[in-house]
Specification:
alpha/beta, binds magnesium ion, binds adenosine-5'-triphosphate, 7-stranded mixed β-sheet, 11 helices, homodimer, globular
Chain lengths: 249, 249
């Protein structure tokens, strides 16, 4: 069975999409077959890969009951994308009214999941019915966080909600500190706080790196845009750590 | 009638809460009577003001039908806060099932709105039923945006959704560039792009300023934490521009 990994955090702008794109791309380069589900109406995954808006997407799967296999878009070798769309904004209320409203995504993905080694779900910030579906469908949860007070504060709430939705915190695999700025005292202080509170869950930080924020404008992963950058080095290291954890090659 | 101002953007982490807190505080210092509604489950407004979790909040108003006047918390002189809560996560689906699901917030606020000069609604990132309610209730919309590709890209989608929900873009008053970093070429390039696309809607940028990211940890507004900082200067200037626009003193 593949791992279904939700990349989530209520806090916005802390690196969820950047982590989804560059972890998925790192695994694909190692030969893993990857499905990325973009559960955020912003469609930032598609933009980050430089992929045109496809004819079919997640809305077609969840609302129009089209088969998943017909709604996938190849993003890179070894990476299929189930893209998001504007229509999902209106779909949230419709999904909420269904009796199985928490399992809609898990059920929809079931026919194709076994063709992949990893399924990554990029979540939007805040909590909505799509994010709830992502948590329900996930076997593993990865939580990026910026090293800022509001983001660190928000982890407690996220933990409460993961426990409420999944029954335990057991599926929370890693907390990935992002945008670590060695010149900034706050970064160091909050990284220490994070490690004191969450121990071995906390990975090495992803350093702040302007190349990571430039890459989406070129529709490239960090490995394509600047393979010798700190961003590429740090995300490759994270992929290695995840590979070991999930026993992949 | 007071102005009801939704501070919103699908993109996360681009300065919605920072703008809500420091614009509201700037107006309160000028003697305006302010209500802040925190429509984001993260409760970042409460944290930023250093206010304890109150007994009653927005959940009590929307779901338990408690009168708004009984659910307000004084945050500062001239500032009342209708705080958010964890329970709002579960409330979204419940609200979605109501026939008047888009007008629930507007209806709930009606009894108290006339006691204030301004009502500010801090929205979460992404789109959910609470954010939809905030847009429906708002007479004016203020959109902060970071000067990054994904955030600027997202403005087009936000504009489409504002038109869809409000019928026109007429209530969009300002786009406020945040985290402007003069040392970073991308900041300059994207600020120019923003001005070319949205013209006079775009205000002077809020400069990147570590004091703004430190202030929430102390539960202080930027004027309290570091009144001589760039952050305090830039937000005070924004308050002046809004005062002129809304004809306040
Ligand atoms: N390590 C980093 N160094 C510098 N910039 C980064 C880094 N990680 C992400 N960024 C940039 O910061 C911004 C926010 O990152 P991203 O969009 O991945 O966050 P997110 O959590 O997915 O946001 P949202 O809540 O809107 O979905 C983006 O412009 C991104 O390019
Ligand atoms: N001009 C600025 N300079 C430096 N840091 C800033 C600035 N504006 C905001 N910040 C910091 O950036 C982070 C994101 O800002 P904020 O939380 O206000 O964004 P948001 O859009 O409300 O996020 P969310 O999508 O999670 O609601 C916070 O830690 C904040 O303190
Ligand atoms: Mg994202
Ligand atoms: Mg916020």
């Amino acid at each position: 069975m593949p791992r279904v990994i939700a990349i989530t955090n209520f806090k916005g702008g802390i690196g969820k999409t950047t982590t989804t794109v560059n972890v998925a791309a790192g695994f694909a380069l190692k030969g893993a077959r990857i499905l990325i589900v973009d559960a955020d109406v912003q469609s930032n995954v598609r933009i980050s890969f430089g992929v045109e808006e496809p004819r079919r997407n997640l809305y077609d799967v969840l609302i129009s009951n089209k088969p998943v296999a017909d709604c996938l878009t190849p993003a890179r070798p070894n990476i299929d994308l189930l893209a998001s769309s504007d229509d999902l904004v209106a779909a949230q209320s419709e999904i909420s009214r269904r009796p199985d409203w928490g399992r809609v995504l898990e059920t929809a993905l079931r026919p194709v999941v076994r063709h992949y080694d990893f399924v990554f779900i990029d979540c939007s910030a805040s909590m909505n019915v799509l994010n709830l579906n992502a948590l329900m469908a996930a076997s593993d949860i990865l939580v990026p966080t910026a090293l800022e007070h509001l983001a660190i504060e928000g982890l407690k709430q996220l933990g409460r909600n993961i426990s409420r939705i999944k029954g335990t915190m057991g599926s929370l695999r890693m907390i990935v500190p992002t945008m670590f700025d060695a010149r900034n005292r706050q970064s160091h202080v909050l990284l220490t706080t994070l490690r004191e509170t969450y121990g071995a869950l906390v990975t090495e930080p992803i350093r702040i790196n302007v190349r990571l924020s430039e890459a989406p404008a070129h529709g490239k992963t960090i490995y394509e845009y600047d393979p010798r950058s700190n961003g590429a080095t740090d995300y490759a290291a994270l992929v290695e750590k995840l590979s070991v954890m999930f026993g992949f090659k």
